[in-house]
Amino acid sequence: MLIGYARVSTDGQSLDRQIDQLVAHGVDKRNIYQEKQSGKKERSELNRMIDELQENDVIVICDLTRVSRSTKDLLNTVERITGKGANIKSLKDVWLDTTSDNPYNTFLLTVMSALSQLEADLVSARVKEGLASAKKRGRVGGRPSKQNKHSEQVVAMSNGGMKISKIVETTGLSRSTVNRILKNYESNC
């Protein structure tokens, strides 16, 4: 039996493109496991699908990034699938096809998944290098601190005799942020 698996990383993304491709390949829509979950988190539908596999089932995916996060993860997933007597086939990555007993498929699976892992590692390394370079130049990533934006307002309210609970209510800042602003102000005086 053909079984499909479709995954996107966030709720805001659509599974439609993947589902259309799986159905066009002959997968019955009722046999498509779907989830909206980051590949870095527990993928409950993927695990449920593998647990429910029967011998000779074929899992069809649009591309390998839907089932794996790394080379090790892909090889473990493929091993779990083939260990149940089932197979996996990728529509995009034609080398990922365990339906035939071809030794080149196993070789290509290992090499190509290693290349995918290398690409992900290179992207991660470039991001880290960019962040380090920006930090040397005094730029800090992330969301701007609410402390800097509201410091003068909070200090003025406090110096005017306003209680912390009222400052929190008025500014919408958390109690800990207000306390941090006042502590920083007092230590700089």
Write the layout of secondary structure elements.
Layout: E1 2-8, H1 16-24, E2 32-36, H2 44-51, E3 58-61, H3 71-83, E4 87-90, H4 103-136, H5 146-159, H6 164-171, H7 175-188
Parallel strand pairs: 1-2, 1-3, 3-4
Content-based structural category: alpha/beta
Tell me the number of strands. Answer: 4
Strand content: 5-15%
What about the largest sheet? Answer: 4 strands, parallel
* End-to-end separation: 74 Å
Order of helices and strands: EHEHEHEHHHH
Helix content: 40-55%
What Rg do the Cα atoms give? Answer: 26 Å
Mean pLDDT: 86
Taken from the alpha-carbon principal axes, the silhouette is: elongated
- Number of alpha- plus pi-helical segments: 7
> What spatial order of strands do you see in the largest sheet?
2-1-3-4
> Which stretches are poorly predicted, pLDDT < 50 over at least 5 residues?
none
Pick out its properties:
189 residues; alpha/beta; four-stranded parallel β-sheet; elongated
Task: Give structural notes.
The chain has 189 residues and is an alpha/beta fold. The chain is built from seven helices and four strands. Strands 2-1-3-4 form a four-stranded parallel beta sheet, sandwiched between helices. Helix 3 links the parallel strand 3 (58-61) and strand 4. Helix 5 packs across helix 7. The longest helix has 34 residues, at 103-136. 20% of the residues are buried. The model has no long low-confidence stretch (mean pLDDT 86).
